[in-house]
Amino acid sequence: MKKSKKQQSGGTPATVALTAAGTAFTLHAYEHDPAAASYGEEAAQALGVDPGQVFKTLVAEVDGALTVAVVPVSGSLDLKALASAVGGKRAAMADPAAAERTTGYVRGGISPLGQRKKLPTALDASASGYPTICVSAGRRGLEVELAPGDLAELTGAVVAPIARA
Questions:
Q1: Edge-to-edge strands of the sheet including 158-160?
Q2: Which of 8, 27, 120, 137 has the greatest number of CB atoms lying within 10 Å of its CB?
Q3: pTM of the predicted model, to two decimals?
């Protein structure tokens, strides 16, 4: 039986996409606590990293179309700014089930990389202030560290101020 790329690499769709693109990255695994109040804050604490350098992947609807927003775990998504960044008028958080179904990932493990369906993406401009940032690698308890420019390039992200402190 032939193994899929995912099985050959032993990774997630996100790590498979990074490897296929030849992008430099570092994986960071930690023990996920199901009782954690915030997946992103948990990741920052477990990795001993500034919460401003760890980014969460949120899925919103902009003018009815699913859109990915990547913002620091220390802040929150500004829906008006997201809509503006991607050329829309109105934004709202997406239904979690629709986000999971469309991305192929579970909540708390949604990665901006290797999604089942490529969605328009916006990356908060604060990412540019760091040499590397951490985002979900596609499952709870696994983060990938990479250069923000590489993330923007691989996802086709618009880089804009879409987060509130």
A1: 91-93, 55-62, 65-72, 121-124, 158-160
A2: 137
A3: 0.91
